[in-house]
Every structure is written in structure tokens, then in C-alpha cells.
Write a structure and sequence with these properties.
single chain, Rossmann fold, 8-stranded mixed sheet, 11 helices, binds NADP nicotinamide-adenine-dinucleotide phosphate
Length: 274
């Protein structure tokens, strides 16, 4: 990423959990606070501080805000209908719209805002610590330079995976968008299993939680080693890990269950879209 891929002006619509995580990332990337306007009817104290200390401009509504290079839509999807009239005035001829609204398609956005260039994204909650992953799809109006800009902005909250086809967003939602909850549930399930074999509840939770945290960090520090290889590396033939994996990897083990769960999430994403 180069400094030239950063936008000269940026409007963040919706400074909630995801919006403020992005904003913190942009400031860390070196975007000047003065180049950013954040719009939210109820600014958090954190946002007010960022306004005072870093010079981020804060506004309660879009009225009177100039058309930026990039408009990020981080409002709740159900707010789009009412917000669109205000935000339409912020779209200049070169404005790139980047939406993180779940379930709102590029066509939904194009029907409500006069934008040529639209990127639709699905981030996930580890964005709050800069370790998210965002699936992103661009329409035909997005130029190569705008795509670079979108990549730079999204990289501020973690990795970015560009999708050739917007239709893949529902599958991305099912795997990584909803995925953090599956991992948290894995921790709960491991802790309950630990209790069932005699560990005190607090210790069982500490062991499970710390194991998932540490394994995630180990995987992140070994980017060229596949997950399968990492698993094989810690599984001695005939040992304790192998005994557990025999159960998890059985024909009726975790893989078919995960397929069923992720399939249900994808179906639900499709139902909620529009
Ligand atoms: N959190 C996630 O894991 C995640 C993952 C992927 C995608 N997303 C998407 O990210 C978006 C934001 O989610 P979030 O979790 O950050 O929600 P959030 O914390 O509720 O943030 C949305 C913010 O937008 C404000 N808002 C409402 N109407 C507005 C308007 N017209 N102009 C400007 N701001 C307005 C809301 O204010 P009020 O609270 O006063 O209404 C709130 O502060 C959603 O579209 C969601 O689908 C979230």
C-alpha cells in the first residue's frame, strides 16, 4: 500500500462498533484526522475525543458535508432507506461508496444513491483489534485506483479478500462474518467437556480459552504452514490428540456438522439480503 492509494477526503457514515474500529485503523495508517468526517447522530465519547485530539470532523447529519473521495456506509442496514436521501447529496462524480452493511446488495445501494463506483464488503468483529478479514466485491464502475484505495482503507482493520462475484458475499458471511461466534462457541464446548472430565469450571474455561487464543496466534505466525500440517505436527500416532481427532474426524464428526452449520448461515444470509 502506498500513501497515494489513501483518499484525500473520507466520510464515515455511522460511527458505531465497526465504523469506529475502521476510523482508528485509518488514523493509525496515517490518514490525517482533518481528512475524515464522521457522521453519527449520537457520537460516543471515544469519537468526541478523536475529534478533539486528532482533528476528525464530527457531524450529526450529512447535511452541509462536502462530497468526499470515499463515502463509507457503516450504518445499520435498516437505516439505509431513511438515510439515503441525505447521503445522496454527498456523492460527487468521483465518489467511491464502500458499504459494510450486511445484506444490502450493490443493486440496493445503486437504487438509492447516485453512485457509479460501489464496493460491498463483509468484515468481521476481530476488526476491532485490527485482525479482521473482509470479503469485498466491486461493481464495474470501480476504477483500478479506487480498488487500491478501498484495499488500503480495509487493510486498516485486517486482511482483504477480493471476490470476483458479489454472490459469494453470502458464503463469506457464513464462514468469516459469522465465524468468530463459532470459535467462541468452540471455547465454550471445550470448557464444558473439560468440566465433564473433572476440571473445576474456571480452570476448564481458562484452559480452553487460552488454547484457542494461543493456537490462533501460532497459526498467524506460521502463515506458510497449512492448518492440516499444524494439526499433524501436534498429533503423535496412537497418542491422546489422535484419540480425540478420531472422534472429531469421524464420518459423523465435526466436518459434516460444520458444513450443516455454515450452510444454514449462508441460507439465512440469502434470506436477509435485499
Ligand atoms: N459488527 C459486525 O460484526 C459486522 C460485521 C459485518 C458487517 N457489519 C455491518 O456494519 C454495519 C455497522 O454495524 P455495527 O455493529 O458497527 O453497528 P452499530 O454499532 O449500531 O453502528 C451503527 C451506527 O450508525 C449510527 N447511525 C444510524 N443512522 C445513521 C445515519 N443516518 N447517519 C449516520 N449514522 C447513523 C447508529 O446510531 P444509533 O445507534 O443512534 O442508531 C450507530 O452509531 C452494519 O450495517 C452491519 O451490518 C457489522
Amino acid at each position: 500500500m502506498t500513501a497515494s492509494s489513501l483518499p484525500g477526503s473520507l466520510v464515515l457514515a455511522g460511527a458505531g462498533k465497526m465504523g469506529s474500529a475502521m476510523l482508528r485503523g485509518w488514523l493509525a495508517l496515517g490518514i490525517e484526522g482533518e481528512a475524515i468526517t464522521a457522521i453519527d447522530p449520537f457520537m460516543s465519547d471515544e469519537m468526541k475525543q478523536l475529534g478533539q485530539i486528532q482533528g476528525v470532523r464530527l457531524a450529526e447529519t450529512a447535511r452541509g458535508v462536502a462530497a468526499p473521495d470515499v463515502l463509507i456506509l457503516a450504518i445499520k442496514p435498516q437505516m439505509l432507506e431513511t438515510a439515503a436521501a441525505d447521503y445522496a447529496a454527498l456523492i460527487g462524480p468521483g465518489t467511491l461508496v464502500v458499504s459494510i452493511m450486511a445484506g444490502k446488495t450493490i443493486a440496493d445501494i445503486a437504487a438509492r444513491l447516485p453512485a457509479q463506483a460501489i464496493v460491498r464488503c463483509m468484515p468481521n468483529t476481530p476488526a476491532a483489534v485490527g485482525r479482521g478479514i473482509t470479503g469485498a466485491a466491486a461493481n464495474a464502475g470501480v476504477t483500478a485506483a479506487q480498488k487500491q484505495t478501498a484495499t488500503a482503507l480495509l487493510t486498516a482493520i485486517g486482511q482483504v479478500a477480493w471476490l470476483e462475484n458479489e454472490a459469494l458475499i453470502d458464503a463469506v458471511t457464513a464462514v468469516s462474518g459469522s465465524g468468530p461466534a463459532y470459535v467462541f462457541y468452540l471455547v465454550e464446548a471445550m470448557a464444558k467437556a473439560g468440566e465433564a472430565i473433572g476440571l473445576p469450571p474456571a480452570l476448564a474455561m481458562q484452559l480452553a480459552r487460552s488454547t484457542v487464543e494461543g493456537s490462533g496466534e501460532l497459526m498467524s505466525q506460521e502463515p506458510r504452514t497449512s492448518a492440516s500440517q499444524l494439526r499433524i505436527n501436534v498429533t503423535s500416532p496412537g497418542g491422546t490428540t489422535a484419540a480425540a481427532l478420531d472422534v472429531l474426524m469421524a464420518a459423523d464428526g465435526l466436518e459434516p456438522l460444520m458444513k450443516k452449520a455454515i450452510g444454514a448461515a449462508k441460507r439465512r444470509a440469502g434470506e436477509l439480503s435485499g
